[in-house]
């Protein structure tokens, strides 16, 4: 009996080791037919145990975001092309702005006299030209628009660049082309002193309001009054030249101060005192006056 129990000691010990390994969570050990003999004379020996499983460590959020972010495109040595720089823009001033305005006037897009200052009115005129040409309507003068404008207009004359009025002089009415005529355009708000079809001088004018409109037609100077005072409104009317009842061409200090924000009571107001003085000296009784729209 003792010998029998002694022979069974090795298998029992092996079983105890396997059970103990399972109890602590380890993997079972495999054996091969080598090593210590069992009861049948076969030797068993444990092989090298399998390596433990790899431990996966969590990746920090920032590192994960960097790894998952798309790769940035490779930069080349050629920068992206920039938009062409404007030739002229809001706030520009000088001779080139004056030329721009004169050329826009030739196309009927700028109905003021050139000032040499690029402001809102010039911006609107440039935008209108860009729209006509199918160009981006930026309101700033880009090289493409400047080339197109120069190709469609002629070199402005000195009179076009430095006109005698703040607005272009209106096209003379056919009735103004013979003799000595005071030719007054309501459309352009200008008065031109025309001698045998040639404009000798021009000046800005304003007219009566809708309640006291300036009459239109052909008239003649009835009389002149150098220091006239209105008997109806008790206001000064220097260099007055009456052509239709109480309506006259005369200098207006109010027009000189307020511009087109005001109106006359039917007279033709002039705001340039020197020009109206020269006209007063050249005009005589009976001189023809044409007021037209």
Give the low-confidence spans.
1-6, 12-36
Any idea what the CATH superfamily of the largest domain is called?
L,D-transpeptidase catalytic domain-like
Q: What is the β-strand count?
A: 11
Question: What is the strand arrangement across the widest sheet?
Answer: 6-11-3-4-5-10-9-8-7
Q: Helix- and strand-based class?
A: alpha+beta
CATH class assignment of the largest domain:
Mainly Beta
What is the average per-residue confidence, as pLDDT, rounded to a whole number? 80
Q: How far apart are the termini? A: 146 Å
CATH fold title of the largest domain: L,D-transpeptidase catalytic domain-like
What is the CATH architecture term of the largest domain? Beta Barrel
Kindly state the percentage of residues in helix: 25-40%
Number of separate structural domains? 3
**How many helical stretches?**
9
The main sheet comes to: 9 strands, mixed
Which value, in Å, is the CA radius of gyration? Answer: 51 Å
Shape: elongated
Secondary-structure element pattern, one letter each: HHEEHHHHHEEEEEEEHEHE
Q: What proportion of the residues form beta strands (DSSP E)?
A: 15-25%
Fold and architecture overview:
The protein has helices spanning 2-7, 9-23, 61-68, 95-106, 120-133, 143-152, 158-161, 253-258, 273-282, and strands spanning 31-37, 43-46, 180-185, 190-195, 198-206, 217-220, 223-229, 236-244, 247-251, 268-270, 288-292. It has three domains: 2-46, no CATH class; 95-161, Orthogonal Bundle (Muramoyl-pentapeptide Carboxypeptidase, domain 1); 174-292, L,D-transpeptidase catalytic domain-like (Beta Barrel), CATH 2.40.440. The longest helix is centred in the first third of the chain and has 15 residues, at 9-23. The model is unreliable at 1-6 and 12-36 (pLDDT under 50). The strands form two sheets. It has a nine-stranded mixed β-sheet with strand order 6-11-3-4-5-10-9-8-7. It is elongated. A hairpin with a 6-residue loop joins strand 7 (223-229) and strand 8 (236-244). With 293 residues, it is an alpha+beta fold.
């Amino acid at each position: 009996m003792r010998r029998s129990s002694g022979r069974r000691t090795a298998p029992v010990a092996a079983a105890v080791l396997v059970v103990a390994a399972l109890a602590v969570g380890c993997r079972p050990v495999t054996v091969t037919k080598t090593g210590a003999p069992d009861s049948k004379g076969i030797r068993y020996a444990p092989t090298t145990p399998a390596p433990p499983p790899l431990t996966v460590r969590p990746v920090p959020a920032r590192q994960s975001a960097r790894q998952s972010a798309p790769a940035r495109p490779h930069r080349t040595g050629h920068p992206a092309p920039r938009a062409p720089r404007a030739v002229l823009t809001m706030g520009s001033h000088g001779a080139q702005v004056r030329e721009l305005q004169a050329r826009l006037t030739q196309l009927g897009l700028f109905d003021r006299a050139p000032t040499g200052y690029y402001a809102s009115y010039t911006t609107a005129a440039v935008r209108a030209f860009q729209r006509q040409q199918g160009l981006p309507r930026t309101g700033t003068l880009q090289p493409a628009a400047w080339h197109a404008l120069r190709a469609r207009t002629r070199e402005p004359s000195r009179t076009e660049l430095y006109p005698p009025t703040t607005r272009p002089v209106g096209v003379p009415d056919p009735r103004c082309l013979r003799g000595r005529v005071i030719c007054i355009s309501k459309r352009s708000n200008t008065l031109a002193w025309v001698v045998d079809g040639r404009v000798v001088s021009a000046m800005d004018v304003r007219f009566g309001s809708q309640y006291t409109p300036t009459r239109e037609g052909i008239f003649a100077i009835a009389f002149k009054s150098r220091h006239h005072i209105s008997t109806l409104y008790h206001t000064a009317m220097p260099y007055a030249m009456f052509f239709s009842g109480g309506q006259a061409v005369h200098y207006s200090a109010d027009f000189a101060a307020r511009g087109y924000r005001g109106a006359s009571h039917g007279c033709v107001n002039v705001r340039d005192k020197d020009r109206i003085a020269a006209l007063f000296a050249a005009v005589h009784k009976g001189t023809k006056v044409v007021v037209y729209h």
